[in-house]
Each structure stands twice: as structure tokens, then as C-alpha cells.
Amino acid sequence: MPTMNLEIVTAERQVFASDDVITLIAEGTEGQMAILPRHAPLVTMLEPAELIIRRASGDEISMVITGGFIEVKSEKTVILADACERSDEIDLQRAEAAKRRAEERLKASGPEIDRARAEAALRRSIARLRVVEKRRKTPVRRPPSNPTSQN
Q1: Which of 6, 52, 101, 105 is within CB 3.0–4.6 Å of 118 for a Cys-Cys bond?
Q2: Residue 106 to residues 95, 96, 99: CA-CA distances in angstroms?
Q3: What is the pLDDT of residue 73?
């Protein structure tokens, strides 16, 4: 099975690096896209949304990205993210509070309100909340247990 090398980096850290990825699903400015091994070269902007990474082992990793760029080359796919968090790193209370603040800013009127900034904050918080909610609904994959014999 062909695989690809994927690297996800932010200004602060390398979030992910692996050479056994079989599928990457991301939200670009033109819509959702699936990147597979041997994908055509591509550079595009990414929207705040969930990233889904499927590895050759069968593991699926869910992350949220708050925007950035993806570059797909024959030997490597690189995501340069504004911010990126694994689903288990997302603070639910913080994401809910950010959503409430953004909604309150959008309801307020006046020249001091930066609507574009408030809308972007709302999109980022909604993306985080969707990833957390999906993680809660998705059962955790566990290896089959070995039956134990009892005497």
C-alpha cells in the first residue's frame, strides 16, 4: 500500500510528522479535499476545520487547524498552520467561551467592532467544538483482548 510523508508545523512547534499516511482530509478555500499518495502537486490555503489523518496501521487521527497553507509535492506534504491541535488537546470550556465571546462581538454594533476578526474567531471556535464533539461520538479503537481462562 503506498503511503506519503506528512508534516504539520506551526510557528511554535512541529505538531505531526509521519511517513506512513495513506489519506489526509482537509478543508481548503475551494472546499474539502482528500490528499492521497502520489497526489498532483498543489498549494492552497486551508480554512479553520478538522484535519483527518489515516495511517497505514488503520489509525485515524483527528486535529483542528485554524487556517494556514498546504503544499503537496511528490515526496512530501507539508501543512503550515496558524495553529493546530490534536483532538485530545482541545480545552472544551475554553472553546465554548471563545464561541460565546465571538457571538457577543458579532451581536454588538459600532465602529469599534472588527466583524471580520469576530467572524474568524467564531469559525475557529466552531471548528474546535466540532472536533471535540466528533471525538466524543467516535468509539475508541481498542485491540481485541485475549480471553483469560479461569479455573
Answers
A1: 105
A2: 17, 15, 11
A3: 94
